[in-house]
Design brief:
Blueprint: E1 6-9, H1 16-23, E2 28-31, E3 45-48, H2 50-56, H3 58-63, H4 72-80, E4 85-89, E5 93-95, E6 107-114, H5 121-126, E7 148-155, E8 159-166, H6 172-177, E9 189-192, E10 204-208, H7 223-240, E11 245-254, H8 261-267, H9 269-273, H10 275-284, H11 291-304, H12 312-327
Parallel strand pairs: 1-2, 1-4, 2-3, 6-9, 8-11
Antiparallel strand pairs: 4-10, 5-11, 6-7, 8-10, 9-11
Protein name: DUF288 domain-containing protein
InterPro entries: STL-like
Length: 328
C-alpha cells in the first residue's frame, strides 16, 4: 500500500531527518520559501520552490506573505492531489521506526472533557506531576486543577495529533524558565470531546480527506501563532462534521532547529493574552450551511473581534476554491 506523503516547510538544505522519512517509504513534499536553497534536491522528495508555487497556485502564492509558515498551505494542496491522507511534520522531527502511529479504522477510545473547556494533553500524556504545557495552552490554567471527565467514544478520527518527545512543542515562557526535555509515556491514545479544546500544532499530525479543508493555516498572524489558531479552528469544525480529535503518544523525537527564545516570546504574545477570547469566539459563533460556509463564518467572527485581519478572507476563499477543485 502506498504510504501517505509527509508535508513540511523548510528553509534549510535536505538533512538526515528528511532522509529518514524517505527511508520509511514516504514521499516528502517540501514547501520552500524565499530563503530556501535554490538547488534543493533529495531523492524521494518533491520540492515546491517559492517560484514554482506561483506556477501551480498563482493566486494563493501571491496573497501569502514570503517567509511565513503559511507557505505550507501550498504543500498541503500538492499533497491533496496525490493522496487521500496526509501527514505533516517539521524538518527537525526524527521519526521512530514505527512512524506513523495513526489509526485509519474506526476505534473506541477513552475521550476526555473538562469543566474549564481545556485539556492539557501534555499532563494527560505524561502521567506525572511535571509542570509542562503545550504552546497555545492558556497560561491562566497552568496551575488549574479543573476536573477532567472521561467517557468512551467509538469513531473514525480524520484528524489525529501525535505528540513529540525530547524538545517538545512548548512555548517560549517554558523554554526561558525551565526548558527541560520531556519523554511522554508510550502507547497512549485518547480522544477530546466536543467543546473541550487543546492546542494542536503542525509538527506531527494526520489528516484524512474528510478534514482536508480544515488544514488551512492563516497567514495574517505571526508564524508562532498561526498553526495554533488553525488547530483550535479545526477542532471547532470537526464537531460540525461529527468527529472528535484523537491524541496519541509520540512517534517522532525533536532536536529543535536554533531559535531566539525572546523573539519567539514576542511573536507568541497573542497566545498568552488572547486565547480565551479566541476560543470564546469559536464557541459563540452561530454556524450554518456547508462546511465551507462555516469555515468562512468562523473567520468572519474572528475578524470582527480583531483576532485575525480582514486580509485573511481573500486567501481563505482561494484556499476553499483550490481544495474544492482537488477533492471534488
Amino acid at each position: 500500500m502506498k504510504k501517505a506523503p509527509v508535508v513540511i516547510t523548510s528553509i534549510f538544505p535536505p538533512n538526515d531527518v528528511i532522509k529518514a522519512y524517505v527511508k520509511l517509504g514516504h514521499e516528502v513534499i517540501v514547501a520552500g520559501d524565499k530563503k530556501s536553497p535554490g538547488d534543493w534536491f533529495e531523492e524521494g522528495c518533491t520540492f515546491l520552490s517559492f517560484n514554482e508555487q506561483f506556477n501551480l497556485f498563482p493566486v494563493m502564492a501571491q496573497l501569502v506573505s514570503p517567509n511565513h509558515y503559511a507557505r505550507k498551505n501550498m504543500g498541503y494542496l500538492l499533497a491533496m492531489q496525490k493522496s487521500k491522507t496526509i501527514l505533516e511534520t517539521d524538518d527537525d522531527n526524527t521519526p521512530y521506526d514505527f512512524y506513523p502511529n495513526f489509526v485509519k479504522e474506526e476505534i473506541e477510545v477513552d475521550t476526555y472533557f473538562s469543566n474549564s473547556r481545556y485539556i492539557n494533553i501534555f499532563q494527560l500524556m505524561q502521567g506525572s506531576t511535571t509542570k509542562i504545557w503545550p504552546r497555545g495552552y492558556p497560561l491562566s490554567l497552568i496551575n488549574d486543577l479543573s476536573t477532567i471527565y472521561k467517557t468512551k467514544v467509538k469513531l473514525k478520527f480524520p484528524v489525529q495529533h501525535s505528540l513529540i518527545n525530547h524538545d517538545t512543542d512548548v512555548d517560549a515562557i517554558y523554554r526561558l524558565t525551565n526548558n527541560s526535555y520531556i519523554e511522554f509515556e508510550p502507547n497512549k491514545i485518547f480522544g477530546i470531546s466536543p467543546h473541550t479544546y487543546t492546542p494542536v500544532n503542525t509538527q506531527n499530525t494526520f489528516w484524512s480527506k474528510e478534514a482536508f479543508l480544515l488544514m488551512y493555516i492563516p497567514s495574517t498572524v505571526a508564524s508562532r501563532v498561526c498553526d495554533i489558531y488553525r488547530g483550535y479552528i479545526a477542532q471547532r469544525l470537526l464537531w460540525e462534521l461529527g468527529f472528535n480529535l484523537l491524541v496519541l503518544s509520540p512517534s517522532v523525537s525533536q532536536n529543535r532547529n536554533p531559535h531566539d527564545y525572546l523573539k519567539d516570546l514576542a511573536e507568541e504574545v497573542p497566545l498568552y493574552t488572547k486565547i480565551h477570547y479566541f476560543v470564546n469566539a469559536l464557541e459563540e459563533v452561530v454556524l450554518s450551511g456547508s462546511i465551507e460556509d462555516k469555515l468562512v463564518q468562523i473567520y468572519e467572527a474572528l475578524i470582527s473581534k480583531g483576532l485575525i485581519r480582514q486580509e485573511e478572507l481573500p486567501i481563505l476563499n482561494e484556499w476553499i476554491v483550490q481544495v474544492t477543485k482537488i477533492t471534488a
